[in-house]
Specification:
257 residues; alpha/beta; Rossmann fold; five-stranded mixed sheet; two-stranded parallel ribbon; globular
Length: 257
């Protein structure tokens, strides 16, 4: 397993916890910051060299990074940070790994949220939404990013599925992660107080792991799961035309058009 982490210090802590539970496992840690598309290019170039030199194949990719920002912030390339990291960063990472990923048996799991049901990517031109112009709401940006995750997983299945790739989006539950701790607003303070009623992050990891290792591939293809149950996502998820439009916009945004 290769862990791609923004913070190497926190990554090492997690790696040691995993190693203590599974001492026979082969674990690797590499740096990846989805906030800067140039650094994504650098990270993937190094990862691909390592894969080639070690003659390894990729069996699965889990797109799991997630941020929420109450106030408008921007990535290195000038995109609104929540959409920039949660969608564009994952989009570029996956596309740059197309060679190792686009083959039979590979599973790509993109972590979304039931918050996608409040996403409104059709309300304004995508360029305005992704740049954060014309007004900003942190919760809306987060929900928009989670809708983009579902649309990406669906379109990825349409484009790569013929090679045997299985792409799926999942809501792993409302989890007590640190995403709630970094925004000093009244709403986030209230949510922080409710963390003791949220699921343990390990439970969310179990839901993701089952999609990687256990769920039959035919049940994953372009699907959306709420924990372990396959459910229908909210429109415009499920709309091939809109998903294709988001894909084309994303290609242009990350410089792959």
């Amino acid at each position: 397993m290769v862990m791609l982490c923004r913070s190497l210090d926190r990554g090492r802590e997690a790696l040691e916890e995993i190693r203590a539970d599974t001492p026979a496992g082969e674990l690797h840690l590499r740096e990846l910051d989805l906030d800067d598309l140039d650094r994504v290019h650098d990270a993937v170039a190094g990862l691909r060299r390592w894969l080639e030199d070690s003659d390894r194949e990729v069996g699965a990719l889990v797109n799991n990074a997630g941020v929420y920002r109450a106030e408008l912030e921007h990535t290195a390339q000038g995109f609104e940070r929540t959409l920039g990291v949660n969608h564009l960063g994952h989009f570029l990472l996956t596309r740059l790994l197309e060679g190792p990923l686009r083959r039979a048996g590979v599973r790509i799991v993109t972590v979304s949220s039931e918050g996608h049901r409040r996403g409104k990517l059709q309300r304004r031109p995508l360029e305005e939404i992704f740049r954060g112009t014309g007004g900003y709401n942190g919760i809306q940006a987060y929900c928009d990013s989670k809708l983009a995750n579902v649309l990406f997983a669906e379109e990825l299945q349409r484009r790569w599925g013929s090679e045997g790739v299985s792409s799926v989006a999942v809501h792993p539950g409302v989890l007590a992660t640190s995403i709630w701790d970094r925004n000093p607003t009244l709403l986030m303070w209230i949510i922080g107080k409710l963390k003791r009623f949220m699921g343990d992050p390990g439970e969310g990891g179990d839901h993701v792991a089952r999609l990687v290792h256990e769920t039959p591939a035919r049940e994953l293809e372009g699907a959306y799961f709420k924990r372990d149950e396959r459910v229908a996502p909210e429109p415009p998820a499920g709309d091939p035309e809109f998903a294709a439009g988001l894909w084309r916009f994303s290609e242009e945004a990350v410089g792959l058009a």
